[in-house]
Amino acid sequence: MKRKYLHIAMYRALDCLYDEQEQPSETLLQFVSDANTYIWQDKSAADPAIQADFNSSMDRQNIGAEIDEEAAYNAVKNFLNEQNPEFAELFTEISLDEWKELCTVVTDEEET
After folding, report:
1. How far apart (Å, rounded) are the C-alpha atoms in residues 24 and 44?
2. What is the pLDDT of residue 11?
3. pLDDT by residue (tens digit) across 81-109?
4. ∠80-41-36 over CA atoms, to 5°?
5. DSSP sequence for 37-56
6. 45, pLDDT greater than 70
7. Distances from the Cα of 33 to the Cαs of 11, 28, 39, 86, in angstroms?
8. Helical pair 48-60 and 69-83, crossing angle rounded to 10 deg
9. Which of 59, 40, 46 is closest to 14 using CA atoms?
């Protein structure tokens, strides 16, 4: 998977998980809204700081231009844990197989 698609995959995973919550926290709502890659304030995310934090985290984790899905899953989980452990815990409700499927979908959509 290309690193440039990781933020999109993370957002879509969290957005789905948010929708499945009976009573999602206000903190999660705000983060998902700010991470929305489909509302462009600066052509990266609804809140450019989220994209900047995400990119910094990927750099610290030595994530290059290409990454396998399992390493991507762990890198995203690490980023979310940096932001709020609640987000990382929620993210782990997605299985590695589901994550791989999502990565395939995101890659296919972004490359067509």
Report:
1. 25
2. 94
3. 999 999 999 999 999 999 999 999 999 99
4. 35
5. TTS-SSSS-SSHHHHHHHHH
6. no
7. 9, 8, 9, 16
8. 120
9. 46
